[in-house]
Write a structure and sequence with these properties.
Arginase, Chain A, 268 residues, globular
């Protein structure tokens, strides 16, 4: 199956990754320089959305897509990429955080609350499965009255960090939560992964790359995948001594993920 590849660079981080620079030279890859768009860091205001949405809509449609969009501060892009979808789908998210907190400023899209926004406003989302989320953050979310988690309890499933420890089989747990005929959209924040496999700007979880790979392959084998998002680069304020190692690790990870996903789309 044909698929589209899109990259949004918010912090110049991809210029330090040889594989991502190779993608930039590929005429089939859609690249948007977002570094000069104001109002995007952690929160995406209305003006920023107005600048970004034309790129999203231009690169959405009948073909699925692979979307890279920098570090976890921009995970809200998964809401913008799923907004145009016209088919119903299950949303599968790899993340160390639930991303279901209401924003500090009412009505503004945030990296910490985008899942809640999707559940509230996207009529095509059947259910959400979050994988690798901190056990403590889940408990905090359920106790927070402003999060109104009771509204979503029937539509949200957590496969907690404690459920993925020691290489526990994850794919079967995920598959059990998705209706057999459902389309699937996948959103990956690499902070769900352990520090041996990724270097991100948020506290990281315990999922291994092997568990992630196995789960992706099982999802592609059993469901039609409408798109895959990838974020979770290092922060732009990363110490110089750490940045090189982080970029090298993430470069290899992005290459492995893109190769796996592109091959899976071609076989779908």
């Amino acid at each position: 199956m044909k698929f589209l590849t899109s990259v949004q660079d918010f912090t110049f981080v991809y210029k330090e990754q040889p594989f991502m620079l190779e993608l930039k030279q590929n005429s089939d890859v859609n690249w948007l320089d977002c570094t000069q768009i104001n109002g995007t860091d952690c929160y995406c205001d209305d003006d920023a959305q107005a600048e970004i949405r034309p790129f999203v809509h231009k690169n959405s449609g009948e073909h699925p897509g692979v979307h890279f969009f920098d570090n976890g501060n921009y995970h809200y892009m998964s809401k913008l990429w799923t907004d145009p979808l016209e088919k119903q789908f299950s949303l599968v998210i790899f993340d160390h955080h639930p991303d279901m907190q209401p924003p500090r400023f009412e009505g503004i899209l945030s990296c910490g609350g985008w899942v809640k926004e999707v559940l509230d406003h996207n009529k095509n989302v059947q259910n959400v499965i979050l994988i690798g989320v901190s056990d403590q953050l889940i408990e905090d979310l359920k106790k927070d009255p402003t999060a109104e988690f009771d509204k979503y309890v029937d539509r949200v499933t957590f496969i907690k960090e404690s459920d993925v420890l020691d290489g526990a089989p994850v794919a079967e747990q995920v598959l059990a939560q998705i209706p057999s005929t459902s389309n699937v959209y996948i959103s990956i924040d690499k902070d769900a992964l352990c520090k041996e496999d990724a270097a991100t700007n948020w506290d990281q979880g315990s999922l291994t790359y092997t568990q992630l790979e196995e789960t992706l392959l099982v999802l592609f084998k059993n469901h039609r995948i409408l798109g895959v998002d990838i974020c979770g680069e290092r922060g732009k304020d990363c110490d110089f001594s750490d940045a090189g190692n982080a970029d090298q690790l993430n470069n290899e990870l992005n290459k492995k993920l893109y190769t796996l996903i592109s091959n899976a789309f071609q076989e779908q």
